[in-house]
Amino acid sequence: MTTSNSTLLMSRVTFGRALRRLRSGVNHFTLVDVAAALDCDTSLISRIETGKRVCSQQHFTKLMDLYEVPASQRDELVELYAASRDRRQPWWSPYGDVISAQYERFIGFEAVASTVHEYQVGILPGLLQTEAYAQAVTSVGFTSLGPDQIEALVEVRGLRQRHRLLETDAPMQCNYVVTQAALEFRVGGEHTHREQLEHLLEISKHGSVDLRVIPYDKGEEAAQIGAFMILEFSDEDVPDVAFGESVAGSLTIDGPRDLRRLHRLFRSLAEAAYSPEESRDIIARTLNKED
Q1: pLDDT (tens digit, 9 = 90+) per residue, 49-68?
Q2: Could you say which DSSP state residue 85 is in?
Q3: Confidence check: pLDDT of 140 > 60
Q4: Residue 290: CA atoms inside 13 Å, Cβ hemisphere, count?
Q5: Which of 38, 57, 84 is the last residue of a domain?
Q6: What DSSP element (H or E) covers 273?
Q7: Is the pTM of this model over 0.90?
């Protein structure tokens, strides 16, 4: 994974996983062993291995010696290390004053994901939203922000759509399951609702979009489950990561057992939903109600 096709965050994740393999898989060291050798806290080593902390040059050199990395493999790790310290700014950097640290982390993962599996209960997935719909949702979800800040967040959502789906040679595969209620809720008023449904009909035909709707008569399948998404990556060194929504904000989920459970849950929801063709029929019928 090089900086030409990845973000700084993902380069750090890839580098960190390579270090973890050397520590536990090759040398069978514990975090305590390595922290003692480097005279630092175990939390620092853990954060470097998870991509949450930059590895210093001094620590990198000590780790290479500690793990007795051969010259042939060290060259590859030097390249990974350099990529993890790349200073080039991602496209969302101009919006740093309105993007939270958690949101920035999510965007970093989404920017290089190959596939997303997303379930929504009451609103439509962000990459499928029109500008007016996104404006209405953001205005309610971020009431403490001023008009300019809300507008900036709407711009970020639009840029995410362009970079990952609409204006790219390598769009992300988007697998969505939503409830029929998400279609019915009149977000932003009648005109915005109609515009959004028309857009949904059109974008659901996109080759990288698989949109399925759970009808009201399957409500027991979906009513007690909160919204979540799972991101997958083509790079085998990068594990899946999921995000769940709660009253306290977005939660990052990366535990293997939790991820397996979410994958099973998404498959169950997709099986309960109508096919993409039948789902478009539901969207069309909902749109006709607006006449």
Answers
A1: 988 888 999 999 999 999 99
A2: T
A3: yes
A4: 19
A5: 84
A6: none
A7: no
